[in-house]
Each structure stands twice: as C-alpha cells, then as structure tokens.
Design goal:
Layout lengths: L2 H35 L9 H9 L3 H34 L1 H16 L2 H12 L3 H25 L3 H9 L4 H12 L1 H25 L5 H10 L3 H29 L1 H7 L2
Helix pairs in contact: 1-11, 2-11, 3-4, 3-6, 3-9, 3-10, 5-6, 5-9, 6-9, 7-8, 9-10, 9-11, 10-11, 11-12
Organism: Bosea rubneri
Protein name: ABC transporter permease
InterPro entries: MetI-like, MetI-like_sf
Length: 262
C-alpha cells in the first residue's frame, strides 16, 4: 500500500476514533447526571440500565439491527444506481434538466411518512416499501451533488477534451467524473445518513423487525430503556456507515479528501 493510502487510512481512523471518544464522554456525563439528580427511569434511563435491558434481549437485538442495516444498504445502493444516470442526464441536456428537476422537487415535497402507508397498500407489508422509502429520502441530495460536480468542470478542460476529439463518453469518464469525485462523496455522506432515517420511517409504518419497529413496540409496553437502546444503536449505525464512506474516500481518492479539507 502506498504512503498516500496509508496516510489516508490513518486520517480516516482518527476521524472515527475522535467521535467515538466524544460519545464515550457523553455517556459518562449522562450516567453521572441521571444518578446525581435521581431522574426517573421512564423519563431518562441511565446508560447502564439501557445497556442492561437492551443486551437482555439477546439474539433478537442482532436480528433487529441486521434488518435495519439491510434496509439501509438496499435503499442506499438503489439511490446510487438511480442518481448517477439521472445526474448524467441532467448535466448533459438543458431540456432534460428542465423536465427532471420539477419531478425531483416533487418527490421531496411530499412527506415520506405520508407515502409509506400508500406503498404498503400497493406493494404489500414486506421489505420493498421500506427500501423505497429509504431510497426516496436518500437519493435527492445525491443527485444534486453529482449534478453539481459534473457541471463544475472548468470550461477550458472540456474544450481541451473536445479539441482532442474525445467522445461524450470519454469526456464523462476522463474529465467530468474525476473532477466531480469530491462532490460525489459529499452526496454519499449525506445519503447514507439519510438512509438510516428513511429506514426507520419505513419501519415505523409497517415492519415486523428492525430498530424502528423495536422502538415503537418498546414504547407501547413502556420499556423506555430498550427504546433508548435501539435509538443509540441507530446513532452508532449512522456513525459507522458515515465513517466507512470517509475511509473509502481517504483510501481510494486521497486527493479528493484533501480537496474537501481545504
């Protein structure tokens, strides 16, 4: 592995460890405050009680976490698969941009909580509605970031490529796409965080497994520590997935990561 990739990996590890340390400090302050002020458990349980009640669920907790993770990843990958061709189409044609942008705004103007029950009725109470809700939440910032990156290429670079008789595909792959990498990863970071939100929204509406389902069922039976535990696992899941994208950017595109830190 080259020195640049090693430095990128070390930098990404540092960005992962610092938030983790901050989270541990926050948990310690939380524990001390709850015990010092004798806050009732039904209002704010201590982290130790949350850990105790949540881990008591055993393998069921892992099943709920994996169910949510699967929905998050499916929705996130679907958002990438749809966003890239849309961004290419929008950036290559003004007519396509005028036709597609209003539709993109329309998908974001309708609350996803309102769409989810309709999807359940149309598609059935399975995982597909949850994946689609996750996709609808995540893909918009990704499309915007990709489109912005593809259009941000300096005109002189485009003219140089065309003067060398580059085809549209070569211009896309060798000029526009490499230049847009920082924008793409910025969109990916937003999309993965929003994917966690979308998955939980879908699970609130219709699910038999998942951390969102666990939160609703736990609060229905006044198991507040379990609900807090599921919420903390969701937060950790979002942090880990976000940092994985940071690591991928630092390792495979260190120059793009350096550009974003300027």
């Amino acid at each position: 592995m080259s020195n640049t990739k090693v430095q990128g990996l070390l930098g990404a590890s540092r960005e992962f460890l610092i938030p983790l340390a901050a989270l541990i400090v926050l948990m310690a302050i939380w524990e001390v405050s709850v015990r010092a002020f004798a806050i009732p458990e039904y209002l704010l349980p201590a982290p130790s009680r949350i850990f105790q009640d949540t881990t008591a669920m055993g393998p069921a907790l892992g099943e709920h976490t994996l169910a949510t993770l699967r929905t998050v990843l499916f929705g996130f990958l679907l958002s990438i698969a749809v966003s890239f061709p849309l961004a290419v189409l929008i950036s290559s044609s003004r007519l396509a941009a005028d036709a597609i942008y209003p539709l993109l705004v329309l998908t974001q103007s309708v609350p996803k909580v309102a769409i989810a029950p309709i999807l359940v009725v149309v598609l059935g109470p399975n995982e597909l509605p949850r994946v689609i809700v996750t996709f609808l939440v995540a893909f918009f910032p990704l499309v915007i970031s990709m489109t912005t990156g593809l259009l941000a290429v300096p005109p002189e670079l485009v003219e140089l490529a065309r003067s060398c008789r580059a085809t549209k595909l070569q211009e896309l792959l060798r000029v526009r796409l490499p230049y847009s990498i920082p924008f793409v990863f910025s969109g990916l970071k937003s999309a993965i965080a929003l994917s966690v939100v979308g998955a939980v929204v879908g699970e609130f509406v219709a699910a038999e497994k998942g951390l969102g389902y666990l939160i609703t069922s736990a609060t229905a039976f006044f198991k507040v520590p379990v609900a807090f535990g599921a919420m903390l696992i969701l937060a950790l899941l979002g942090i880990v997935l976000f940092q994985l994208i940071v690591v991928a950017e630092r390792v495979f595109f260190p120059w793009a990561a350096a550009e974003q830190r300027r």
